[in-house]
Structure formats: structure tokens, C-alpha cells
Amino acid sequence: MLLRVPIKHCKNCGTAVVYRIPDDGDTKPRAVCPACHTIHYENPLNVVGTIPVLGDKVLLCKRNIEPRWGKWTLPAGFMELEESTAQGAARETVEEAGANFEMQGLFAVISVVRVGQVHLFYRARLLDDTFDPGHETIEAKLFTEEEIPWDEIAFRTVREALERFFEDRRRGSFDRVHELSIV
To answer: Is 98 left (phi over 0), alpha (psi -120 to 50) or beta?
Structure first.
């Protein structure tokens, strides 16, 4: 069951939409405008972020916003228009942690089906331990795997990404992109 508010009005003309299967061969009910016939598709939102690392430590940010105020997370947020997934992940890392880093490869793609989101995490190599967190972050801090406050992690996607990161590091290779679904 998707937890999103349904579209109520046409974005083009403002008329109340009707949910029905469009006449164009589609197979799913969509928000269709009875006045201008625009079909409104509802697609997943992309959340992009990084797993920033310095030596044996990972950078986490303590959230200063809801949801999950005061919990720890990786620097991540919603992708913006006119940016690639990597550009969005880099932007979020600067906005939330104020970190100096070098982007590395895509690490994980996690579908969160029930909320219509796809989370993409990139690895990032921190260039130093100087951080200047933005207004969405209470504190940006480096943790070894043993120091991570696992019970205070904000989101399951962050936990899953971190667990796989540490598994790969123990294995000695980051040769794959992890793909998983959370239903």
C-alpha cells in the first residue's frame, strides 16, 4: 500500500482529476483530467547520498529536521531537477555535512516500495576531517564500525547501506553495486 497523497487536480488546468485506466493502452489506473485529458503519472522519488569515509571511519550526520530528528544518518536527500544522481549526492553531502570529499562509485540502489522511493548511495573519500554542517544537521561526526550508534540510525536504508559497506570492506573489495528492495 503506497503511503502517498493522491493527485487531486490537474497541474495544467486545475480541474479535479479522475482515477481510471487511460484510453492509450495503459494497464494501471492513473490521474486523468476529464477537461484537458492530461494523464498524470506518479513516479518514485529519488533519494541520493554518500557513504563518506576517512581511513577506517564513516561520516554520519545527526538530523536537525523531521522525520527522525536527533537520529544519525548518512548525508542524503531528495534529488533535484537538472542534476545527475552523483551531482545530487555530492550536493547533499556538502549541504548536510560541509565535507571536503572525492566522489567514488555507485554503491547501493535500494527500492523502498511502500513509500515510492529509490535510495542511491555513492562511496565518497573524505579529504580531511573538517566539517561545516548546514541547518539540517545538528552534528557531523566520524565513527568506526564499532562506534556507530546502530540503535540511533534514522532509516533502514542507511542501516542496510552501512552493513553492506562494512561487509565489502572486510571482504576487501567494492566490486559490485548492491541492489535490494524494502517492501
So the answer is: left
Question: Which one-letter amino acid corresponds to residue 10?
Answer: C
Cell 548525508 sits on residue: 75
Question: Which 8-state DSSP code applies to residue 172?
Answer: T
- DSSP reduced 3-state for 130: coil
Q: Which of 81, 75, 78 is nearest to 103 (CA)?
A: 75
CB atoms within 10 A of CB 65: 12
The set of residues, in sequence order, having a beta carbon less than 8 Å from that of 149 and lying 6+ positions away, is 72, 143
14: exposed, middle or buried (Cβ count in 10 Å: 0-12, 13-18, 19+): exposed
Cell (9 digits) for 10: 490537474
What digits encode the pLDDT tens for the residues 130-149? 999 999 999 999 999 999 99
pTM greater than 0.85 (yes/no): yes
Q: Which three cell numbers stand for residue 103?
A: 566522489
Closest CA to 154 of 113, 119, 130, 104: 119
What is the predicted pLDDT for the residue at 5?
A: 84
What secondary structure letter does DSSP report for 5?
P
